[in-house]
Specification:
Structural class: alpha/beta
Order of helices and strands: HHEEEEEEHE
Helix content: 25-40%
Radius of gyration: 17 Å
Number of helices: 3
Shape: globular
Distance between the termini: 64 Å
Strand content: 25-35%
CATH class: Mainly Beta
Number of strands: 7
CATH superfamily: Cupredoxins -  blue copper proteins
Largest sheet: 4 strands, mixed
Length: 138
């Protein structure tokens, strides 16, 4: 019984925390993500040509919600140093992207107006890593 209790306590102690929900802390995480992107690519994410950039950092999509016009291509970039992430439009019935390791990217073009919720396959349950793309008509 002692071994079981110790195992349960150990399992509880290593459970990851859920994603940040405080807007000020999210803003800080996303500012760090922007700085990391700039360090890697030599320019700000907003200066990427022909795409809208969303970053993956510290179990957070930055920004959490994107609003883009129809026809926009979104590029997700993992700027974490050690963690892999994915994008998965699960409710839309789409397959999960391959794991994106640090500095890797995935892209998707949005041709249909609407709200498209997505998640990080490996971290949506453990860290509540979810995002949304709102596609508006031109």
């Amino acid at each position: 019984m002692r071994l079981l209790a110790s195992s349960v306590l150990f399992a509880l102690s290593v459970q990851p925390a859920l994603a940040e929900t405080d807007p000020d802390k999210i803003a800080k995480i996303c500012a760090e993500a922007d700085a990391r992107y700039t360090e890697i690519y030599g320019h700000a994410p907003s200066d990427a040509e022909g795409v809208t950039v969303a970053l993956m950092y510290k179990y957070t999509f930055c920004p959490v919600t994107l609003e883009v016009p129809v026809g926009t291509t979104v590029r997700w970039v993992n700027v974490d140093k050690r963690t892999s992430h994915s994008t998965w439009f699960k409710d839309a019935g789409e397959a999960e992207s391959q794991r994106l390791f640090p500095d890797e990217t995935a892209e998707q073009t949005f041709d249909i107006p609407g709200e498209w919720g997505y998640l990080c396959g490996p971290h949506w349950e453990s860290h509540d890593m979810v995002g949304k793309v709102i596609v508006i008509p031109k």
